Amino acid sequence: MAITPSIDRAATLLDAPPRRGWTADLRDFIRQRPLGAAGAAIVLLMLLVAVSASLLAPYDPLAVDFGAMLAAPSADHWLGTDAFGRDVLSRLLYGSRTALIVGFGAAFFGATAGAILGVASAYFGGRIDLYLQRVMDVFISFPLIILALAMVSILGNNLPNLIIAITIPMVPRAALVIRSSALSVREMPYVDAARAAGFGHARIILRHMAPNVMAPYLIMLSAFLGQAILLEASLSFLGLGVQEPTAAWGLMLRGAAVQFAETAPWMAIFPGLAISLSVFAFNLFGDSLRDALDPRLKTQ
Q1: Which end of the chain is more exposed for a tag (fewer CB within 10 A), N or C?
Q2: What is the distance in angstroms between the CA of the first residue and the CA of the last residue of the chain?
Q3: Domain that holds residue 261
């Protein structure tokens, strides 16, 4: 009699489907969404380049060589030099660090703050939800670039302030998207059970509701990465981002002024390609991640 339950449990384990590992999920993602996989590969390549820029760069990105000003691409300078004789390739490699620091910093803080506000707004409801959403509507009524310009003008144009200035416009956009998912989570039985058990509001929000809106959070995070990189380049190009002599793609475009458009076109071509490729890669990956995490869009 004591052996029968063990036999039943063993039969159940044998009939259960084998667990899928993360490698199988990765293979499915690559096979079903090759464009998203290509975007992820470019993002990983950018990360590797940023981390090992000091090893890959052939020159010091800040070193000025007046004897090689506006030198065309050659064996000595593969992508040419700028108006100060600085190597364009070296500045591109180090500029990826600036782009990724600002991009990941602003996207993470913006999506995280928006997620907390969105979940709290959905949880409390009532006047708190009403007032908080009206504040979000005020912020979201401004275009990203306009609000970022206003913030950086108020805070100043160093790197930490630039991250804050780009983060603030992203918070209301993330809050509105995540709130819509949190509204359905609020009605789940386990949330009612947590209330009945006497758990505090902070514990219910952070431990029971927030983990269940991770899919829209990850989607917003990946979408914000490309936007943050583009905003950083735009602000730096306008002179309101990071300042010289810091290596940044927007600053490199700013240095490629109109007077150099014909005599040294490489000063604008290569930074422009770097910005376009990085934003394109993040957008491809973000769209594929959305399709993979949204159950309504999953392929059978």
Answers
A1: C
A2: 44
A3: 33-56+80-293
